[in-house]
Specification:
Blueprint lengths: L7 H52 L2 E10 L5 E11 L6 E2 L4 E6 L2 E6 L4 E4 L7 E2 L6 E6 L12 E2 L3 E7 L5 E7 L10 E3 L1
Antiparallel strand pairs: 1-2, 1-12, 2-8, 2-9, 3-7, 4-5, 4-10, 6-8, 10-11
């Protein structure tokens, strides 16, 4: 069962060969472990970024606090609509200049940036960025001719609109507007 080695040189050569094979296996295992650790770190970073972007798409949106329209002098329709905006609960900072507005109604569909519209700070809003839950900004859309949208010419009585605000992160808020069926010249503005 056991062989007796009489030659001392043969015994050393077998040990060195085994040692070389062992070191090679350790090196291969170390390289493989390094690749796995690097890949795991990359996947973790990518998962965190995806999670943050997904959270932003859901939470970093606007909230429409109120909507009102200015009635034309002859009472025949609404010539502009003012949206009072706030950031939704749990939202991060929302830059109104990077927010788009889409209007879909009986007179067609239009998109524009809020930065192209008239905005007014109701409560201390710095550079059109809503940073606090108490911040309020008024965004006015002009529907008269010529207005903010080329195919719109004041909103008629009973007209319906769907207005969607989409922030830079991709979160959107939709507001349905219905113009009252009865408008009079005595009215200055109406809630929509």
């Amino acid at each position: 069962m056991f062989e007796t080695l009489l030659d001392e040189e043969e015994r050393g050569q077998v040990g060195i060969g085994t040692l070389i094979v062992f070191i090679a296996m350790v090196l291969v295992a170390a390289i493989a472990a390094g690749v796995l650790i690097n890949t795991a770190g990359f996947l973790q970073t990518q998962a965190e970024a995806t999670g943050e972007e997904s959270t932003s798409q859901v939470s970093d949106r606007l909230q429409v606090v109120s909507t009102s329209g200015n009635v034309s002098d002859d009472g025949s329709g609404i010539h502009n609509v003012t949206f009072v905006m706030a950031k939704a609960p749990g939202a991060g900072n929302v830059d109104l200049d990077e927010t788009t507005i889409q209007v879909i109604g009986q007179q067609g569909q239009n998109n524009t940036q809020i930065s192209n519209l008239y905005t007014e700070d109701i409560l201390d809003v710095n550079n059109n960025v809503l940073t606090d839950n108490s911040d309020r900004a008024a965004v006015t859309v002009n529907f008269s001719d010529p207005g903010d949208f080329s195919n719109y010419n004041k909103l008629s009585s009973g007209e319906d609109l769907t207005v969607t605000f989409t922030t830079a992160s991709g979160a959107s808020t939709t507001k349905e507007i219905r113009v009252p069926t009865t408008l009079t010249a005595e009215q200055d503005s109406v809630r929509l």
